[in-house]
Amino acid sequence: MKVALIKGDGVGPEVTEQALKVLDAISKRFKCRFEYREALLGGSAIDETGVPLPDETVDICTRSDAVLLGAVGGPKWDILPGNLRPEAGLLGIRKALKVFANLRPVMLFPQLKSASPLKEEVLAGGFDIMIIRELTGGAYFGEKKRVETADGIKAWDVTAYTSHEIERIARIAFCVARKRRKRITIVDKANVLESSRLWREVTGSIMKDYADVETTYMYADNAAMQLVRNPGQFDVILTENLFGDILSDEASMLAGSLGMLPSASLGASKVRMFEPIHGSAPDIAGKDIANPLAAILSCGMMLKYGFGMEKESNAVLEAVNNVLDRGYRTADIMQPGMTLVGTEKMGSIVAEEILV
Ligand code: NAD
Questions:
Q1: Which of 146, 159, 169, 258 sits most deeply, having the most CB atoms within 10 A of its CB?
Q2: Which residue's alpha carbon is at the smallest distance from atom 17 of ligand 1?
Q3: pTM for the whole structure
Q4: Which tens digit of pLDDT belongs to each residue from 160-206?
Q5: Cβ of residue 20 lying under 6 Å from some atom of ligand 1
Q6: Sign of the dihedral defined by the CA atoms of residues 219, 222, 224, 226, in that order
Q7: Distance between CA atoms of 30 and 314, rounded to whole angstroms?
Q8: pLDDT tens, 258-311?
Q9: Does residue 282 come out as left (phi exceeding 0), alpha (psi in the -120 to 50 range) or beta?
């Protein structure tokens, strides 16, 4: 399997190194081979080539079987104009790979209950949510403009979706729900947004093809509240780009830390992208304290959704579970009585666990 490796900026390279240790262990145990091709994206690409997404990176990624990404961005590049910032590279590679569906599983590892900010009684039943976020449309990709007006500068970002963009991700979401607990909540603001009303029309029109899936709609503000009130009520959440970005970060805290959450991005091409949902965390970069489990679990998703290697993927999840059972914690999920370890050590322990 050819993997395009984008380590990125900030903690990106640190956590990706740990994910590679785990993939090496998977190679040894299951006798499979991964071939890595490194590519530049974001800040490191700007420093070396002057642009956040060099053509060579697009070439390497499109010729690979999967892309594994750390994270990009940082204050060093914040002064650049929007189209030259690291985030533009990220949006660009998602567009180039035509990945429009971002799958973000948010589950509570029982060992981390006390790291979650929610009360014990809210967490009693646990939760296992799959957030499916649309990734290449909406306000992040719509027309952006600034004009001078009599009232000062006016700026806008257009939230636009076509029925085709909605239908293709909705069909993925319904299929994912079918393989889970067969419940889907479509999150929008149909009370105020025309684009949300189109989401309702399109999803309503294909719902009959998935009659075995129970579908409900929820406004985004209510969903934000319900996630902390009763996260166990959700199975699959389907939503557009901006709401998905915000709600999945909120949901991540329920699981204890951003450092625990992986993601997979799928779409129209065979190449899929796998990355932790966290950013480059410049505040903790280079200190060996970042949690590498999100990057490691992203490898687990790559094995399952990228290569169809279910048992290898389960081995990664099981290793993470066992390491948490044995009491190892990075600083972000540290609890009294547990053993504090750094980024490097956590990566090594998970890799060793796979080979036990
Ligand atoms: P962030 O996710 O980098 O950090 C938010 C908070 O979570 C910070 O306090 C950070 O220390 C903590 N955190 C993040 N990852 C962690 C980990 N693995 N272990 C422990 N703690 C962790 O978000 P931000 O601070 O808003 O953004 C920083 C930079 O990252 C910005 O330039 C932003 O644009 C970029 N960003 C990139 C991506 C991506 O590459 N996919 C995603 C989000 C943000």
A1: 169
A2: 259
A3: 0.89
A4: 999 999 999 999 999 999 989 999 999 999 999 999 999 999 999 99
A5: no
A6: negative
A7: 12
A8: 899 999 999 988 899 999 989 999 999 999 999 999 999 999 999 998 999 999
A9: alpha
